[in-house]
């Protein structure tokens, strides 16, 4: 990211040759950025699939009974959220890798979907952590007993899935930052910056 | 929000008189924007205080026993999150209303804190909804019984508090959008926009 002021100053004496050089350089930066963004979208895809598979296969039968992820609403929601996340991550990685111009509707779509996915996955991680917390600790005042003593294997796998989900949240928080940068850097800064009124007429020579 | 291109075109023939006029106009837009942002920060403050007070006063004693918000970890977290939210909303409203120039560190601080608060409040709302869901429905496979049949008043008040918390989340999502706009509109757009390379030399005419 380059500050507007310094970038403007840097190209004051731009000749056609430096323009061509800068276009080639831009092309390179461009490819690097696209690759970085694609990777940043493929990693959460892998994480979501992992969290999804761990949770899907999570069931345990003991002498006390049997417990499966589908018995708990929070874990069902976690599986759905991770499925949506994996699908969206793959699709958005494909769109991000394609070398074509990035229009405003694209930027707005990425912005809204990235933010929405972040909230969706964060909520899934949060509700599942709460269920795990209750399963480990119980709550005597509301007569809910700790169940992880009986279903230790189930709780361990569920914890692994939830931890991976929170790592995904971190990746999505960064992706949200990136997509807001890509969207809002194309807009003018709001008027409450004194520098703005001086800079624009200077550009017009 | 004005698109860079159209704004650049609009001031090509800027004379000193139109500049003065535009400064006065900017000042007006500026004040309106500041007032709008301050209101947008004061509303969630009121909401957070309401959700906090409802939850803090929430306890019920019946023949089956007594239940208070502090018996449940999720509701304790909700109270803390709403307290932090109320404090931050007030402080940020005070900072937003002050008529002074908005520097980059300010913009970054607002951006990170607004995003962080959104995640914090969303997580609080999510874990509390999960507890309410279990309290209303119970989960026989994990031996947790529905308790809202015994503690109806408690559950109703908790639901009200959680709903208000989700309204706060919506306000904070908008505030996050606003603070990312205020931050990233001050940066140059990334290089993968073909228009960029042509536009800058044109400005240097």
UniProtKB/TrEMBL annotation, chains A, B:
Q: Which UniProt keywords apply?
A: Cell membrane, Membrane, Transmembrane, Transmembrane helix
Instruction: Give me the Gene Ontology terms describing cellular component.
Output: plasma membrane
Which residues belong to any copy of the Casparian strip membrane protein domain? Answer: 31-170
User: Which branch of life, at top level?
Assistant: Eukaryota
Q: Where in the cell is it found?
A: Cell membrane
User: What parts of the sequence cross the membrane?
Assistant: 38-56, 77-97, 148-175
Pfam families registered for this protein in UniProt: CASP_dom
Annotated membrane topology:
Multi-pass membrane protein
Q: How does it assemble?
A: Homodimer and heterodimers.
Q: Give the similarity note.
A: Belongs to the Casparian strip membrane proteins (CASP) family.
Extract the NCBIfam families matched here.
A_tha_TIGR01569 (TIGR01569)
Q: What's the name of the protein?
A: CASP-like protein
Q: Which organism is it from?
A: Cephalotus follicularis (Albany pitcher plant)
């Amino acid at each position: 990211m380059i500050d507007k002021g310094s970038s403007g100053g840097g190209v004051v004496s731009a000749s056609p040759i430096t323009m061509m050089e800068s276009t080639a350089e831009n092309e390179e930066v461009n490819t690097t950025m696209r690759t970085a963004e694609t990777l940043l979208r493929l990693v959460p895809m892998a994480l979501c699939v992992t969290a999804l598979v761990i949770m899907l296969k999570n069931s345990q039968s003991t002498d006390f009974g049997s417990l499966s992820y589908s018995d708990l609403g929070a874990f069902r929601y976690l599986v759905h959220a991770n499925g949506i996340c994996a699908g969206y991550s793959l699709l958005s990685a494909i769109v991000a890798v394609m070398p074509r111009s990035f229009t405003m509707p694209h930027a707005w779509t990425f912005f809204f979907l990235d933010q929405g996915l972040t909230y969706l996955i964060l909520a899934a991680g949060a509700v599942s952590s709460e269920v795990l917390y209750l399963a480990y600790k119980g709550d005597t005042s509301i007569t809910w007993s700790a169940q992880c003593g009986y279903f230790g294997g189930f709780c361990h796998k569920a914890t692994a899935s939830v931890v991976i989900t929170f790592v995904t949240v971190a990746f999505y928080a960064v992706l949200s930052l990136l997509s807001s940068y890509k969207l809002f850097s194309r807009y003018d800064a709001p008027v409450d910056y004194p520098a703005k009124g001086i800079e624009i007429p200077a550009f017009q020579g």
